Amino acid sequence: MPLGKDYAAQSCSLARTLELVGERWTLLIVRDAFYGVRRYNDFLVHLALPRAVLSARLRTLTENGVLETVRYQASPPRDEYQLTAKGRELWPAVHALAVWGEQHHGSEKGSRRDFLHAGCGTRLDQAGRCPACETGVPPEDVEMRPGPGADRAPADAVSRALLRPRMLLEPLPQPLNA
Amino acid sequence: MPLGKDYAAQSCSLARTLELVGERWTLLIVRDAFYGVRRYNDFLVHLALPRAVLSARLRTLTENGVLETVRYQASPPRDEYQLTAKGRELWPAVHALAVWGEQHHGSEKGSRRDFLHAGCGTRLDQAGRCPACETGVPPEDVEMRPGPGADRAPADAVSRALLRPRMLLEPLPQPLNA
DNA sequence: CCGCTGAATTCAATCACTGAACTCTTTGCT
DNA sequence: AGCAAAGAGTTCAGTGATTGAATTCAGCGG
């Protein structure tokens, strides 16, 4: 629905996936959700996208069961957006795309962000598996830390909060200071 | 370049990947290339997209080293578009997205297309690995065959040609009859 | 009462996509 | 030679989506 017509070749499941998740900004929102971003304003600050687009994307992701809203305070009603189980299953795809980008368009200084199997400390391969343990690693067990190519002093508070090592899906500390 | 501005948060390799591969139609073109589609007209027939968009996408994919043009006849000069090594490395990402779509938006009749480890015949998991052999499977070793949910009598010749089991990256037979 | 925050919506301008028509070159047919 | 067809595009007007700025709105803090 979001993008006018549906893709032809709808006999392919990739086409139906891209209808939902293939619009501009959508996968970056999902990626941020894996990073622990949950609030409207944090997405806004981190991605620097127009508010209208963010609202629209959050709505269609929620309507399609990728995100769900969770009330975190009642009096001025405020909702967080969290990944559902269905959304968390996008991790292999998101990770594979990120790894491809790192390999082919990475900076010369090295990776910007590393994803490690928590507990064993090994970097994941493109398939999202731990080469040492020879198992797939769900996002809950992935530790993210800045790599040598990371920007050391980003302009926005969300990027700064993401600079310290953290587990995927772990919510950002609130409020965001420094 | 293709989409006006570059994504902010360019410290993420996913963003740079999506700049290249995240536009409408682009990943479907790449998927078709894995399926063996190589010619302008075959992409056009299979995807039913505007010619202007197809030309633009093929150009940027070629300029960025995902596809390369290969002359297949000289007299009226005709080029095929083939995946480069860099392009073939998108297979895990494309496959992961397709599997996600199959799981969450698949038809009730079952999968539309199955991807098997050729030689062992086991269906790949979401990470693109063969559960039986416990190895990753490169696209050259993947056999594609229609699943129970496939459309049995598609309207276009390319879809009909893709109905018989085939190896990924194997070029479509030319000319396309039936 | 006033200003602030978080979460939006509205609006004009811009940009991209769509679909149809057109171009150009070579080849096959008569 | 003349004509139609195929393959691979380009051009162009109309539509739809995205952008960035401004505005709204509710509740809270002092």
TrEMBL record, chains A, B:
<dbReference type="InterPro" id="IPR036388">
    <property type="entry name" value="WH-like_DNA-bd_sf"/>
</dbReference>
<dbReference type="InterPro" id="IPR036390">
    <property type="entry name" value="WH_DNA-bd_sf"/>
</dbReference>
<keyword id="KW-0805">Transcription regulation</keyword>
<keyword id="KW-0238">DNA-binding</keyword>
<dbReference type="Pfam" id="PF01638">
    <property type="entry name" value="HxlR"/>
</dbReference>
<keyword id="KW-0804">Transcription</keyword>
<protein>
    <submittedName>
        <fullName>ArsR family transcriptional regulator</fullName>
    </submittedName>
</protein>
<dbReference type="InterPro" id="IPR002577">
    <property type="entry name" value="HTH_HxlR"/>
</dbReference>
<feature type="domain" description="HTH hxlR-type">
    <location>
        <begin position="12"/>
        <end position="109"/>
    </location>
</feature>
<dbReference type="GO" id="GO:0003677">
    <property type="term" value="F:DNA binding"/>
</dbReference>
